[in-house]
User: Fold this.
Amino acid sequence: MTLTSQSYIETRIEAILDRWEGRWFDISQAQRGEPAPAPSEEPMPERLHAMTLPERDGARHHLIVTHGNGMTGATHANLARALADANPNIQPWLIDTRGHGRSTLSLDPGKLRDYRRYSADLKSFCQGLEGQLHFMGHSMGALLALREASDLCAKTPERVGSLMLLEPTLLSRFYYAAATLGHYFPALMRRINPLIKPAARRRPSWETWDEMFASYEDKELFAAFDPDSFAGYLATGIKASQFGVALSCAPAVEAANFQWLELDLWGQVKRRRSIRDVPTFLAYGKLAGSTLQGSRVQELKAFFRNLTVLGVEDADHFLPMTHVDLLQQDLLRFYSGLSEQGSTD
Assistant:
């Protein structure tokens, strides 16, 4: 199985960058800086990058999209656009988390011990938006979305319109217990989590774009991606470097995020309970590799009072990139239900 042709992917990247506008936000001091047009040169350090639809400026609703470890916001441009096209009063924001995509906020993976720095960045970004917020996140991004929505609900519940969790990293109780111990013994964590070492060994750069694409051509993971999801990832996940082209997310950052999984978040949310009434959409795969097992699904069903669940038999953790058409249909049905309730007018 091989990827869609390079020329087609390059055409899709062009289409994404033509429709979506990149903007940089100065949040280094939790300031609410105004968005600036994308500069022609490399953006200044310490800025968070997000992509949006420029014609939506002034919309009263915002869709905040947060990606998984190693990915970028643009990976989910197709899902966000489907929701935005269904409602012209919603402005999507495809966030590049610190250490990912085009964001230039500094990150030392050697000092990373949890996801709180990422959460603080998202909180600062959301403070600069007026109106109601809708959160959609995949994997690590789903945890960031869950934390921010929960924090907002504790103080200003009217600010949160909906929550869309796509394969959130809410591990089984057994893995949770083992990983908790692994936080005290990093060497043990590297044995428990098989994703850490391959991430650390990931090739960081190539001499040319063509060489980079050729190296991905036979990778089973990317071959299963929807072409537009793969194009979105490449659009902001690969950058020019002194060596030619390089990963925007350094292998050490991706490995550190696997090493220091956010383990206590779900317990905090359950104790706080302020988010229980938020309309929530949950999507997970039922194949091996999903980070959401049956017991956790049941916990979520028991916790959220207004929960829509989609379990996909032939999907794994990369559900949002491999089953885009299916997800678009279900997300649109979920979102149309919100419109009928008057929460997205």
About this structure: DSSP finds 15 helices and twelve strands in the chain. The chain has a mean pLDDT of 91. The CA atoms of residues 111 and 264 lie 19 Å apart.
